[in-house]
Queue: 2 jobs
Job 1
Amino acid sequence: MRARGAIPIRLVRLLRNLLFRRRVERDLDDEVLGTLALLIDEKMRAGMSEADATRLARLEPGSVESVKEAVRDARAGAQVETFVGDLRYGTRLLRRNPIFALTAVLSLAVGIGATTAIFTVANGLLLRAAVGVAEPDRLVDIVRTERGAGPGVSEISYPEYLEIRRRTTTLEDVFGYRYELDPVTMTVADQGASRVFANTVTANYFTVLRVSAAAGRLFDTGDGEAPGSSPVAVLSYQFWTRRFQSDPALIGQTIRLNDHPVTVVGIAREGFRGTGVLAADLWLPTAMIHVVRPEDGARLLTAHEAEWLMLGGRLRPGVSRAQASAEVEVIGRSLEREYPRASAPPAPPGVVIRERTAGTFDWSAEVASPIPYGLRTLAAGFLALLLALVSLVLAIACANLAGVLLGRATERRREIAVRVALGAGRRRVIRQLLTETMLLFALGGACGLLLARWITSLLVLLLPAFPLPVTVSVPLDLRVVGFSLGVSLVSALLSGLAPALQASRADVVSALKDESAMATDGRWLRNAFVAAQVALSFLLVATTGLLVQASERVSRVPRGFDSSNVEVASVDLSVAGYTEASGQAFLRTLIERVRALPGVETATLADRIPGPGARSLGSLTVPGVAPPDGQPSFLRTGCSWNQRILPRSASRLSRAATSPRAIGQAPSRWPLSTRRPRSCSGSERTPSASPSLRGLAARQERIGPGPSSCRWLRSSPT
Amino acid sequence: MPHERASLLQGTLDLLILKALSTGERHGLGVSRRIEQITDGMFAVQPGSLFPALHRLEEAGWLASRWEASEHNRRAKYYTLTRAGRRQLGEETAHWNRIALAIARALKA
């Protein structure tokens, strides 16, 4: 029945009512009082005395205030006004009771802050593309997953990348990058050598991601894709600042990477550290893959079997991820048909090959995020567990606050009874109490958001020292703010509703007359909140205890060797320019000298430290079997035992504090640290089959620029 | 003293106000008196219902108002029907007549 043109008029009125409140109120006052005067006039004209007329006139319309109140309720924006009024009243109450307000807000801040912090990490790792790219929502990850395979990273070959890029119509462009970083020896004129981590990316990487340059230029179409044709590199902003003190003169200079001359053409914008979780120091175009992979670089650019790229793409405007995914699936299927995989050679007797990449694959386009698609379920599961745990903290805070609010409602039943006696409906009372609770939670949520910032940066700081630089950027975006707002509102409703309902049930007469009437009424509810709080706290303590125990048990799992009193250090001799031959000689001397140290029982060298997670992903040659194309087959192996392990024992190296330093500072080289294993015999693959070992392995971490220096790290289980 | 002799049927208040204003500009009390007059004293609208309704109708765009000095040098708010209000009055009258007819028929049956 309402006229259609009414909406803009009502909107204008709403704004007027809210913005010019004072004037609107004065008009209302004039109107009601004016009517009253008219009424008095009318009665006096009928022959009444002024006093009688005034008395009757005042009686007739009910109180002036109640008329005004009725008008206010009918006015546009009445809800907003009520809300603001409730909010003002709530603020006043909180200010009158600062201790309660402070404890409530703080306990909520801890709960909301912890939940938000975990969500921020999940958001940064799983739900959004890397930081520093433009229009991240239009980026997708192109993934190939093996059907039935467990969690893992599945890569795609360079020829397949070119094909997908050529055939796609739903994606603006497709880029590729290596999931792992490669350690490279960087030599800058007269400054000595240092180890840096390079990431090989396709020449269009920065263009598709729309990353801007902080200085110079990034890779562009001018950088050729033919092997060796574009000897250029782009540095990360952080590396440029840390290693070169943001020297603008570096751009255009030629540096040497693994002895190949490469020109630094530019610096990527601040904040961009690559598309994965590993933070690259510099990027090289795929055409320069031979710099990081001298042994098989050329093959990586041509062989369909050499899978080493992670792919991503940018959706064309108006194209959905599902459409792109359908197309990627079709392209992937036809690629599988056109380039069938050579079947793996039969295993020689005595060798059991557990995994081989010859299954069926699914192709799809997934939401772009730093964690590779194959590992997301794992990461999500872990984060969900953490989120559940911190939600318990929030639930405890809520139960606690609900109990306190209930107590306060009992104290305030006189006030509530007065409100009800003055004509406030039950809904109105509940609404007011809920608004007060919301205010408390909004404050808690705001503090929680600030706390979450701090907790996330603390989490990032507490990350264990990985052998590779890891980047975890956990930006605070709209989704995170929305999450903490939602969490605050829902928990406010959950913990505020019961006390509000209880309080609004106040029996006016008994509440005004008798002090203790309702105190018994809400008691069971309050007890329930206390019980819930205790139960949740117990659950939290128990779960945490179990988790701690579980992680302890994991570290105590027998590894087939005695890890007590073992110290680990690592060296990279390639940085100091050793060759394979001179490196071997150096290592022999090194190990002999370490063994001669007082307090060292024995020492040994290893390519990789045995332990959980020490799997190598690389080439495997089986002695006596020639690979079909003359190249090692790319198999994922459980091979972590291609090291030369000397089954003698050493111990108490840690106490010989000065001696390890002597080793570390010595120039060093060779395949101790992150180099890929070259060969592995099948029988050595399971750690449990290995003889008992106590010894020393070496591991190195670079600190700052300049000649190589070492920091000694304790191995984790000691 | 006129009292509320019959409770206003829901929705009829708006119609009565629109009707009372169809003959010209009035202030709040004038609207109230006019309603009493045209309903033969059947309805007396209390200010507690009248003023909220006037404000609501004004916000809906059916009434316009202006301030004018009344007899005793007081400001008084005078309401008039807008064009939309007149249309609304027509619609509501037709609607009400249909209902009244239907009820009358139902009661005769």
Note: The longest strand of chain A covers residues 193-201.
Job 2
Amino acid sequence: MAVSVGEAVSAGPAGDRTPPARRFGGRGRSVLEVVLLAVLAVVMLFPALWMIETSIKENRDVYAIPAKFFDFTVTMDHFRDVFVASGGTRSALSVSFLNSVVVAGVSTVLATVLGVPAAWAYSRFAVRAKKDQLFFILSTRFMPPVVVVIPIFLMYRQVGLIDTKLGLILIYAAFNVPFTIWMMKGFVDEVPAEYEDAAMLDGYTRLQAFWKFTLPLLLPGIAATAVFALIFSWNEFVFAIFLTSSDTVRTAPPAIAGLIGGTTVDWGLVAAASVVFALPVLVFAYLVRRHLVAGVTLGAVRR
Amino acid sequence: MGTVAAHGLRKSFGKVQALDGVTLEVPDGSFFVVLGPSGAGKTTTLRAIAGLERLDAGSVRLDGRDATGDAPAARDLAMVFQSYALYPRHTAYENIASPLRARRRSSSEIAAAVERMSSLLHIERLLQRRPAQLSGGEMQRVALARALVRSPRAFLMDEPLTNLDLKLRVEMRTELTRIHRGLGATFVYVTNDQVEALSMADQVAVLKEGRVQQVGTPAEVYERPANQWVAGFVGSPPISLLACHAEGDRLVGADGWSLPRPRWSTASDGRPLLLGLRAEDLSVERRGDASLPGELYGLEPLGDRTVVDVRVGTQILKVKARPTVTGTPGEPLQVTVDLDRAHLFDAGTGLALPRAGG
């Protein structure tokens, strides 16, 4: 039995695969509910739909009044413009996407590498004032970034981290480590400590026991946690716009925001860039949708 | 060699004192059982010996050498966990091979050892399965095989039979005893089941609230319980305890009964005592000089025997009788007492009174 990430979850409660008892439009939903849900769906989905439409419309259709919902000419020009500058060289936007990939990727790896062992330690060992420490770690997530951005800005200026990718990587990692610790601690708690005890009696050191026997069981949890961290770093806007300024360093969110505000706004380009920006998040969210509630014990311990 | 010695182990979890000065001497090659109710500190004792628990105080000596600070791997012990703790993503084969892999043995050596163990424990056909595909009894055997596959200094077993059903448990009791005899190795075996303790052990240590109450052979623990608590914990049905005091050559009960004072008794007159009487040392069928008046309270037929509950004054005595015994509740009875086999405890301290002439 090859245990894959997917199986770990689908092996969960038997009710998982049965359809929900109450379906849309089915018995138990009043007309009012249906109407409200429909209104809500339109409000939520319309901007996304309009973004996608705008990204494939020609400019004159974008500005057409009355708005053209269906009868417009489809073009991929805006998407080309996202990646290629007018001279055929790489566009500033594509550089910012690359920066986003690097910053989000490296900060996530950093947060995972630091956070997973910390979560393991908090789960397994008697740490002095453990609850207080964990609360402190969590409390760093209470405040919104905008509260600390000015002091961070001043500190970064002192140490020369202003307008560097490293600066963004460090601050994102700092924000993701607490999240990783908290989420991973839950996953580690689920893996019985006896596996490590047994491994140590087999003759392994504690670290070997963790590495060989616990870590493989944590992989689904690590994947889910890392995706959340990745999405946070990918979407982050406040730090990015305060701490970076040059095109070579900027990440995608401030770069896309920067497209708006000139004398004319190329809405087609803004929409296309937004679609490109949103896609990875959608893909990742889709990949981890089942792990949001995943348990990871697969087994051999009776309790 | 395989001696295990623990001296003055102390360990607290928060406000709970799990171990309160536990001292044990496990001789080489013995089947040493640590017996006690849940929460007595049995598992903590075992984990402390294994090096899985950091002690507040005390020391662990293995083969006479201090091993208190050693890592589990350095202690050369094998352990069977109550939960079995089989690695869920490894096959039974890989689980059993794990201790040898950790020691970097060659794969041919590992294969031979796993094969030997699996035939000893009759699990040859399960080797390619994962723990999730094994039954409780099968997991238990695989866990046992993982411990037995190498020859450690001693085997530590934490209630290995608790999670098995009764039939399997009885079977495994015999099998474990057989394995122990075959290996001649030291076993430290933790259980809350007195039947396991009495039937398997060379030596029993009775533990309560983190303190050792008594260490001895099963017969010693049963026949000469060191205190009232051990007497009550070991034995089924439980020993009956009657409040009384000595008065000249008689024992006078708080409920008004009186018995001849046992010849071996050393109690001074008037000191409050507890008379401990085991069910098999009482009879409602025989006649004797020493007897207690009571009335039938109830019958518990158990197939091979019947336990007769007799009310004496305000207390209920458990009396073992033949399965054919009958009676109606309320009917008056004489309970004959075998005073040579009775126990006397100090009612204050609970300690057994010394017996004159052994």
Note: The mean pLDDT of chain B is 92.
